[in-house]
């Protein structure tokens, strides 16, 4: 079957030529042939050079999401099974796969699709029209590939309820794919047990991207007094607790998250060591400072303060404020773990913001290490669309 053809404007497609997987609507010179949104399309440079196949969607600013650069590829079930197999084999090489991200969209050449594995449950998030059509094909392939390694999947839950689907002309949906099951799933990560609610938890239910960063703070915490800000369901706090912290205080403004954090503390028999408060961190930090409280370790794991370039300036103020306040609460020689999960808060700007906070607090920072998202959330160096998490550990002097 002859595919429609998109021809790029002369001088456009620069990101695509570096290895990117998106063609923006303002980069197209013309489209030849008829199509419906979500269909496959061939992409050619202005001079006719073949650039690859992808999904087109005229409703989106991202006009085409690329699937392959090879003219020989046939986009069928076998194609998607190979993509799935490659993604799974990579995870087996780089991460503990008991719970991990199996598919990370463009970084696994499956644009717009995220699949997380929590023990024997999969959670899928489809964010693009083209991949939506092949979602069940890909999930069936995942089941087969995992079964080959003796992993039987108990059920699949869909969390395609992000607002970004509206930009693709898709409705927001969530629910079981196949037979219903208990949506609360117990997992173990870094020796800590968690109850993950795949139905009502944020995004896919649990933030797997910080797995190795949570492990990294364990060595700092034995015998220490620890404050975990934006604790969500208690993950950093519980890693501090299991490492032997003397006491841990976790804080979050969400009552639902704090209730889950307390349940996770009980699950790990740490309810007497790890305490949680439901309070806005921007109000908590000044209150603790006024009370003369000091901590050996402070952890800042805030939600993304900006999800667009338009609000970056406001986000900088927020990151600067919480880092400055946190530094004032740290004992001399103590440690700060601080991060940003916003793609639009680029690494240089985040580093500059922390430096300004240190100057404002009168503290000197000695960098212990810089980390990013776990390797089951990979990204390409030539294009940064999948790179978002920046994580520092500093000694505060």
Provide keyphrases for this structure.
single chain, 397 residues, alpha/beta, Archaeosine Trna-guanine Transglycosylase, Chain: A, domain 4, Transcription Regulator spoIIAA, Rossmann fold, 7-stranded mixed sheet, 6-stranded mixed sheet, 10 helices, 20 strands, 29% helix, 30% strand, globular
Give a concise summary.
This protein is 29% helix and 30% strand. The chain is an alpha/beta fold and 397 residues long.
Oligomerization state of this entry? single chain
What is the C-level CATH assignment of the largest domain?
Alpha Beta
Please state the overall shape, judged from the principal axes of the Cα atoms.
globular
Q: What is the terminal separation in angstroms?
A: 67 Å
The neighbouring-strand order within the major sheet is 16-15-14-17-18-20-19
Overall pLDDT metric: 95
Task: Give, in order, the helices and strands.
Answer: EHEEEEEHEEEHEHEEEHEHEHEHEHEHEE
* Number of domains as seen in the coordinates: 3
Strand content: 25-35%
Instruction: Please outline the major beta sheet.
Output: 7 strands, mixed
Unreliable segments (pLDDT under 50, ≥5 consecutive)?
A: none
> From the coordinates shown, what is the CATH architecture of the largest domain?
3-Layer(aba) Sandwich
Structural class: alpha/beta
CATH topology of the largest domain: Rossmann fold
User: Roughly what percent helix?
Assistant: 25-40%
């Amino acid at each position: 079957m002859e595919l429609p053809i998109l021809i790029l404007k002369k001088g456009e497609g620069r990101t695509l030529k570096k290895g990117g997987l998106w063609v923006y609507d303002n980069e197209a010179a013309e489209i030849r042939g008829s199509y419906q949104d979500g269909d496959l399309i061939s992409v050619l440079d202005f001079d006719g050079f073949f650039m690859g196949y992808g999904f087109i969607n005229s409703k989106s600013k991202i006009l085409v999401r690329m699937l392959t650069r090879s003219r020989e590829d046939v986009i069928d079930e076998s194609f998607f099974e190979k993509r799935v197999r490659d993604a799974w084999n990579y995870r087996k090489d780089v991460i503990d796969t008991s719970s991990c991200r199996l598919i990370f969209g463009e970084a696994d050449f499956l644009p717009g699709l995220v699949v997380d594995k929590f023990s024997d449950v999969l959670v899928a998030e489809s964010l693009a029209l083209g991949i939506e059509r092949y979602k069940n094909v890909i999930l069936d392939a995942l089941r087969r590939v995992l079964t080959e390694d003796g992993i039987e999947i108990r059920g699949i839950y869909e969390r395609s309820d992000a607002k970004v689907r509206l930009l693709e002309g898709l409705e927001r949906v969530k629910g079981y794919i196949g037979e219903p099951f208990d949506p609360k799933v117990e997992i173990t990560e870094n020796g800590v047990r968690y109850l993950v609610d795949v139905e009502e938890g944020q995004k896919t239910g649990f933030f797997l991207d910080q797995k190795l960063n949570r492990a990294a703070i364990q060595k700092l915490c034995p015998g220490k007094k620890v404050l975990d800000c934006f604790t969500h369901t208690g993950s950093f706090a519980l890693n501090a607790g299991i490492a032997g912290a003397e006491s841990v205080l976790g804080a979050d403004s969400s009552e639902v998250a704090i209730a889950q954090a307390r349940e996770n503390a009980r699950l790990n028999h740490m309810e007497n060591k790890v305490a949680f408060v439901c309070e806005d961190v921007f109000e908590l930090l000044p209150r603790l400072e006024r009370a003369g409280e000091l901590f050996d370790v402070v952890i800042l794991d805030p939600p993304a303060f900006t999800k667009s370039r338009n609000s970056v300036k406001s986000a900088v103020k927020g990151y600067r404020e919480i880092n400055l306040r946190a530094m004032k609460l740290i004992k001399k020689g103590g440690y700060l773990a601080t991060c940003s999960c916003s793609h639009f808060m680029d690494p240089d700007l985040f580093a500059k913001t922390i430096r300004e906070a240190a100057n404002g607090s009168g503290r000197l920072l000695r960098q212990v290490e810089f980390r990013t998202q776990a390797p089951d959330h990979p990204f390409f160096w030539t294009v940064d669309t999948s790179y978002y998490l920046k994580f520092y550990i500093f000694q505060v002097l």
